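Form 7-S
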Amino acid sequence: MAKYCLECNQKLNLFKFPVRFKNGSVCNSCVKEFGFPGASEITIAWQVNARSVDWEEFKSKPELVEQWRAEIEEQNAKVEARKAEKFEKERLRCPKCKSINIQVLGKQKKGFSVGKAVGGAVLTGGVGTLAGFAGKNGKKVEFVCLDCGTQFKK
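Output:
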């Protein structure tokens, strides 16, 4: 990293949020004068674009900022579209009518376990047979479709 700003010759440090160009770095206050976003708005995409040009070239072409801004907004729109598509694809739907209008009925509980009851009876006597009711809840959750009434588990 250059030790001094290419524009104002102030000493640079991380607190000045320098932006790196091909031929050196410029402090954030100088680069903002030429339309570059502020420190809180700078993303990796902005940094990558800045490193592709010289500072003098950047100053002489004010349209670069708008071009980069448009490219970054386009990239962000594509990312948001992919997120929305993924959300819709992974959304829980009724297997019969494909509706998203569903409601949770609850977790399916496992019933009496003979193995646990026998183990409990051997260890503690007759009272240990109650151990057959002990155990985990099932992993499946029951749902009902509010449109077609289908009940299903996931």
